[in-house]
Write a structure and sequence with these properties.
18% strand; globular; D-Maltodextrin-Binding Protein, domain 2; four-stranded mixed β-sheet; single chain; 12 strands; eight-stranded mixed β-sheet; 16 helices; 2 domains; alpha/beta
Amino acid sequence: MTPRIKILLASIALATSGMAPAQTLLNASYDVAREFYKDYNAAFVANYKKTTGKDLKIDQSHGGSSAQARAVNDGLDADVVTMNTTTDIEFLASTGVVAKDWAKRFPNDASPTTSTMLFLVRNGNPKGIKDWADLIKPGVQVVVVNPKTGGNGRYAYLAAWGHVLEAGGTEAQAAEFVKKLYANVPVLGKGGRDATTIFLQRNTGDVLVTFESEVISIDREFGAGKVDAVYPASSIVAENPVAVVERTVAKKGSGELARAYLNYLYSDEAQEIAAKHALRPRSAAILKKYADTFKPLKLFTVGKYFGSLSQAQKVHFNDGGQFDKIYTVK
């Protein structure tokens, strides 16, 4: 038997023995979703093995959502993107990286979970912060994400602006409130996890405005009792959209796997995992089951006051927009 035949037979034996190299899938995601996807990936891999008999390896890439979108656009070969704002996926759709009709490819406008913005304060709430108005008081330092680099920051900004309108205020009053709030911001985080690091590890600021899900992440990473969660009178609905990266799956032949990965986010198992990470599930039954996790508060949608995230992007976050008018990088 020649060496070449031996190698060929060995390769066939390896493939047929179930020891073939595992398929790989890369998920490019936003900062504060890393713990959720760590647990979700384990559940999906187990289910995939059970239903197909095939092994699977899932890699993760995390960062500010807009930075992640730019990385994928610039060549990062992610099979899927799981973001926290639709604008980041719309950007990829505009360049042909994901499908133009990506929002119709999966249920609930391709958003299997939602979240909202709340306040994290230091244990015992020493500054007595209860609502948005407390964030503009003299001597209160607020930590937020830069809305130009992360969806976390855009939602925090829009939640602050929208709360004024929700209370019956005018656009001019909303602009003035947000200007005062950002005057109390000593430094902008690059992404959600960077903002948490600034708040907890650098001990900067009195309040962190961030996603509801970050409460559980902080308890797990830094230990319970470091922060208290404060729910304002009103806040914004933050959708967490997902999409297949068509450019990558066409090259890798991983389209079916990528779609299965995103579809499974709507399964009861995945929705349970989301709830345990304080991501609001789309499943009404599971949302009700975790009523103690998701405190009641008045929620308004982006559409109610801003039309859409794309419209908000043009008005508020593009160069020369409202954010640039009210905030000078320190």
